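Lab notebook page, bench 4
Experiment: in silico fold of construct C2
Operator: M.H.
Input chain length: 119 residues
Purpose: comparison with the prior construct
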Amino acid sequence: MATTDFKTIDEYMASFPEEDQKVLQKIRTTIQKAAPGAEEVISYQMPTFRLKRILVHFAAFKDHISFFPTPSAIVAFKKELSQFETSKGTIKFYKDKPIPYDLIAEITKFRVKENLEKK
């Protein structure tokens, strides 16, 4: 990945190898379907979706893809995430294992509901 200031998610994705681009695009599409109306932005130099406020981020790294759905989602989906490496607000999906797109969709829907319920 080039160290540059990305202006769009397309620019960000284009900086990765083709195989990573395919996974990133599928994650993007999954989030778009789960969060219709969410705005796509770059925040912290990562693809980000906003709905009133930050919804989720995602990013590619050498050996994994990280999904950042905020700490509340990590807690709410603790059981479903037990097979993945997590930290306070991050889930790591290693590239040598299948990406759980359905789980990404469910977590994103949870975050949409959470954001829309916040005053």
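Observations: The mean pLDDT is 94. The helical segments are 9-14, 18-34, 71-76, 101-117.
Next step: discuss at group meeting.
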